C-alpha cells in the first residue's frame, strides 16, 4: 500500500470521526402510518409518533425485540462502544451538545458493561487471568491488596457503583481545567457527569480487549500497558472534545489526574483504611521493623492523617491548576465573552 493511499484512508477516517452520521429526508415522499392511518412526510408520524416503515411482524422484528433487552437494538450499545473506541471525544461532544441519537443511554450502558465485567473478571476468570484483586500473586503488591481488603471487597460487590463514584470525582477538576476550551467552551457540571460516565465505559471495555494479553505478560507488565492505553484514551478524548492542542491537553489532564488520585486516596484511607501491620510484615524491611506493631487507635489515626494530607494536596493541586489555567486562557476568555452573538 502506497503512502498516498494511507494518507487518503487516514483523511477519510478523520472525516468519519468528526461527522459519522448523515441523515436523509425527502419532503415529497408520502408515507402511511399503520398505527393511526395517517398519511405524512418524514421519518415519524406527527399524530402518534410511530416510526415510518413499520409493518407486519417479521424475523427482523423478532431479532430486534430480543436485542432490545440488552441494549443492542435502536441506538445500539455495541455501536456506541465502537464510537467511543474510535472517536471518543467527538462522540461525547455530540451527545452532551444535544445529539442524543448518536449514543446508547450512558448510565445504562455503564451499568450493563460493569455487570459483564464483574461477572467475567471477578467470578469466572480471576485465577485464569491472574486478575483477582483480593490476592494477586505478585509479592511486591500482595500485602497492599491484603491490607485494603475491605475496599476491594466492597468494589467487587458494587463495581457499578464504584465506577460511578470514581467518575463523579473527575467532574469538578475537568470542569475547572477545561471550561474555557475552544472546542466546547463553558461545559456544565451536569454535562461533566456524562463525560466521565462515557469515559468509564471506555475503561471497562479496554479491560475486556486486553484480557488475552494478560496470558502472555506478567501482572506488572499488564498493568503498565493497561494504564498507558487508558491515559492515551483520556488524552485523545479530551483533545477531541475540548479542542486544545497536545501540550494544552496534557498539562490540564495532569492536574485533573492529580486531584482525582488524591480524592480517591481520601476515599480509600478515610472510609476503608489500611492495616499497616500487614503491610510491614509483607515487605522487605529489616526484622525490627517487621516486629513493630501499631495499636488499632494508631492505625485509625494514621489512616485519617493520610486522608487529610491527600485532601489538602488534591485541593492545592487544583488551586494551582486553576490559577495557571486562568492565566493561560486570558485571551481566549476575552474573545469568548466579547464575541458577537
Provide an overview of this structure.
The protein is mainly α. It has one domain (75-335). Helix content is 68%, strand content 1%. It has helices at 3-18, 59-69, 77-86, 88-96, 106-124, 126-129, 142-147, 149-157, 159-169, 171-178, 189-214, 219-242, 246-272, 276-281, 287-290, 296-328, 330-338, and strands at residues 31-32, 39-40. Strands 1-2 form a two-stranded antiparallel ribbon. Helix 8 (149-157) packs across helix 9. Residues 128-143 have low confidence and may be disordered.
Query: Unreliable segments (pLDDT under 50, ≥5 consecutive)?
Result: 128-143
Helix content bin: 55-70%
The secondary-structure class comes to mainly alpha
Order of helices and strands: HEEHHHHHHHHHHHHHHHH
Strand-residue proportion: under 5%
What are the defining features of this structure?
341 residues; two-stranded antiparallel sheet; 68% helix; 17 helices; mainly alpha
Summarize this structure briefly.
68% of the residues lie in helices and 1% in strands.
Task: Outline the secondary-structure elements.
Elements: H1 3-18, E1 31-32, E2 39-40, H2 59-69, H3 77-86, H4 88-96, H5 106-124, H6 126-129, H7 142-147, H8 149-157, H9 159-169, H10 171-178, H11 189-214, H12 219-242, H13 246-272, H14 276-281, H15 287-290, H16 296-328, H17 330-338
Antiparallel strand pairs: 1-2
Helix pairs in contact: 3-4, 4-11, 4-12, 5-9, 5-11, 8-9, 9-11, 10-11, 10-13, 10-16, 11-12, 12-13, 13-16
Amino acid at each position: 500500500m502506497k503512502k498516498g493511499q494511507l494518507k487518503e484512508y487516514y483523511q477519510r477516517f478523520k472525516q468519519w470521526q468528526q461527522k459519522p452520521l448523515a441523515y436523509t429526508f425527502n419532503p415529497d415522499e408520502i408515507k402511511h402510518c399503520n398505527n393511526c392511518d395517517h398519511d405524512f412526510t418524514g421519518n415519524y408520524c406527527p399524530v402518534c409518533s410511530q416510526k415510518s416503515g413499520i409493518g407486519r411482524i417479521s424475523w427482523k422484528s423478532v431479532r430486534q425485540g430480543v436485542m432490545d433487552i440488552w441494549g443492542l437494538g435502536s441506538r445500539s450499545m455495541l455501536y456506541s462502544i465502537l464510537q467511543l473506541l474510535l472517536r471518543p471525544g467527538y462522540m461525547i461532544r455530540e451527545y452532551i451538545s444535544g445529539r442524543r441519537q448518536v449514543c446508547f443511554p450512558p448510565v445504562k450502558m455503564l451499568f450493563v458493561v460493569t455487570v459483564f465485567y464483574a461477572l467475567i473478571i471477578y467470578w469466572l476468570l480471576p485465577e485464569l487471568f491472574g486478575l483477582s484483586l483480593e490476592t494477586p500473586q505478585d509479592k511486591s503488591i500482595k500485602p497492599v491488596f491484603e491490607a485494603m481488603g475491605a475496599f476491594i471487597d466492597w468494589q467487587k460487590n458494587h463495581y457499578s457503583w464504584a465506577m460511578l463514584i470514581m467518575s463523579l470525582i473527575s467532574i469538578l477538576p475537568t470542569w475547572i481545567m477545561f471550561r474555557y476550551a475552544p472546542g466546547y467552551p463553558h461545559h456544565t457540571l451536569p454535562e461533566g457527569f456524562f463525560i466521565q460516565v462515557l469515559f468509564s465505559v471506555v475503561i471497562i471495555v479496554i479491560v475486556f480487549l486486553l484480557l488475552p494479553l494478560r496470558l502472555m505478560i506478567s501482572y506488572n507488565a499488564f498493568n503498565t500497558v493497561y494504564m498507558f492505553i487508558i491515559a492515551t484514551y483520556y488524552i485523545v478524548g479530551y483533545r477531541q472534545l475540548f479542542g486544545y492542542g497536545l501540550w494544552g491537553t496534557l498539562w490540564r489532564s495532569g492536574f485533573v489526574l492529580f486531584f482525582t488520585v488524591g480524592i480517591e486516596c481520601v476515599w480509600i484511607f478515610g472510609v476503608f483504611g489500611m492495616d499497616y501491620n500487614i503491610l510491614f510484615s509483607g515487605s522487605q524491611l529489616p526484622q525490627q521493623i517487621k516486629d513493630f506493631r501499631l495499636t488499632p487507635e494508631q492505625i485509625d489515626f494514621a489512616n485519617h492523617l493520610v486522608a487529610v494530607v491527600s485532601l489538602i494536596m488534591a485541593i492545592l493541586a487544583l488551586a494551582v491548576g486553576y490559577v495557571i489555567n486562568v492565566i493561560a486562557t486570558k485571551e481566549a476568555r476575552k474573545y469568548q465573552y466579547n464575541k458577537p452573538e
